[in-house]
Design brief:
Length: 324
C-alpha cells in the first residue's frame, strides 16, 4: 500500500485586523530591506503589515470606503499604486513614513478588472486599466498620465468586459504586449503600439477571472468561474495556443499567481481553498483549507512566502516548498 499523503501544513502565521474582506495583496521591501505585505480591503483601506511584528504599521484611506482591488509598488520614492472601485487609481508617497496620496488617475470603468503595470525606464511606467464602455482597455504612461493606446475589439467580436490584464515585453523585443482575459472566456494578445490583436483563443466557457504569465517559458495559466484551469503558450511571442486544461474539484478561481522562480503556482478559490501546483507539470502539491470564506487573492514574495486574502477578513501566510 502506498503511504497516505501527508496532511497540508498550517499557515506560518495569520494576519488579523483588516476589518473587512481582503481583495488585494502585494509584497514589497520596506525600510532597511524588511519585508512588508500590503493588503486592500472591501471597505477601502490599504493596510501596510510588518512581517516581523505581524501587525499593521499603517492604514491608508484613499478610496472613499470602496473596495481596493489591486496594489503595486514603484521603486521611485517609494510609491504605491492602489486601484479602487471608486474609479480612482491613487499614487501614494510612502517615503520616510509618509502616507499621502500625491496623484490620482480617474478610471473610466468600475468593473472588476485589475490593472497591470510594466516598467519602461527608471522613472517611467506603462499601466493598463479598464477603459470606456464595456470592452475597452486603456494603456497610460506614468507619471505623465498620457494616454498611450486604446485597445477596443472589432465591432461584432462580443468579447464582453475585460476581466484581467497582464502587460508584458519580451527581452528580445521593444514592443509592449498586453494579455487580456474577457467575459466570454477568451484570451487575447494585443500589440499595444499598433492597437491590433495578434492572437485570440477560447480558453474557458465562463469569464476569465485571473491569469498569470511565465515570461521565461512564454507560457501561462488562467482560471475562471468554471471547474478548470487552462494552460497556454505564446508561440514566437505572437500566437496563443491552449496547451491543456486541469480539472478542479470545485468551480471558481478568483486569482492565480506563479512564484517568481517559476517553480510553483497558487490559485485562490471560491471554495475557500488555496491550491498549489508544480508549475512545469501541473502536478497538485497541496490544498490549503484554512479560510472560511472565498479566497479573493494570492501573492508570492521573492523569498517564497505565499499570502492569501479572504472574505473571512484574514490573511494567511505560508512557507511552502522554499526556493532552492
Amino acid at each position: 500500500m502506498a503511504a497516505p499523503a501527508p496532511p497540508p501544513p498550517d499557515p506560518q502565521f495569520v494576519l488579523r485586523g483588516a476589518h473587512s474582506a481582503v481583495h488585494a495583496l502585494h509584497f514589497c521591501d520596506g525600510a532597511e530591506g524588511h519585508p512588508l505585505l500590503l493588503s486592500g480591503s472591501l471597505h477601502g483601506l490599504v493596510h501596510i503589515w510588518s512581517l516581523q511584528t505581524r501587525r499593521p504599521l499603517a492604514a491608508l484611506d484613499g478610496h472613499g470606503g470602496q473596495c481596493v482591488t489591486w496594489l503595486h509598488t514603484l521603486p521611485r520614492g517609494p510609491q504605491l499604486l492602489s486601484q479602487g472601485r471608486d474609479l480612482q487609481l491613487c499614487v501614494w508617497d510612502l517615503a520616510e513614513g509618509r502616507n499621502a496620496v500625491v496623484d490620482a488617475v480617474r478610471l473610466e470603468s468600475m468593473g472588476f478588472c485589475r490593472a497591470s503595470i510594466l516598467a519602461e525606464g527608471p522613472q517611467r511606467w506603462m499601466v493598463a486599466v479598464p477603459g470606456r464602455g464595456n470592452d475597452e482597455v486603456q494603456v497610460l504612461e506614468l507619471p505623465s498620465k498620457t494616454l498611450v493606446s486604446c485597445l477596443k475589439p472589432e465591432a461584432g467580436a462580443r468579447l464582453g468586459m475585460p476581466m484581467c490584464l497582464q502587460l508584458w515585453q519580451a527581452e528580445s523585443s521593444s514592443r509592449p504586449l498586453l494579455l487580456a482575459g474577457y467575459e466570454d472566456g477568451s484570451l487575447a494578445l494585443w500589440d499595444v503600439s499598433t492597437r491590433k490583436v495578434c492572437s485570440r483563443v477560447a480558453c474557458h466557457s465562463e469569464p476569465v477571472m485571473g491569469l498569470a504569465l511565465d515570461p521565461w517559458r512564454a507560457r501561462g495559466v488562467s482560471g475562471s468561474a468554471e471547474k478548470a484551469l487552462a494552460v497556454w503558450s505564446l508561440e514566437g511571442q505572437q500566437a496563443l495556443q491552449v496547451r491543456g486544461t486541469h480539472e478542479l474539484t470545485n468551480p471558481g478561481i478568483a486569482d492565480v499567481k506563479i512564484r517568481p522562480d517559476s517553480k510553483i503556482l497558487a490559485t485562490a478559490g471560491w471554495d475557500h481553498r488555496v491550491r498549489v501546483f508544480q508549475w512545469r507539470t501541473m502536478r497538485p502539491l497541496a490544498v490549503l483549507a484554512f479560510h472560511s470564506a472565498t479566497v479573493h487573492c494570492v501573492a508570492f514574495d521573492t523569498a517564497g512566502l505565499l499570502a492569501a486574502g479572504s472574505g473571512d477578513q484574514r490573511i494567511s501566510v505560508w512557507s511552502l516548498y522554499p526556493p532552492t
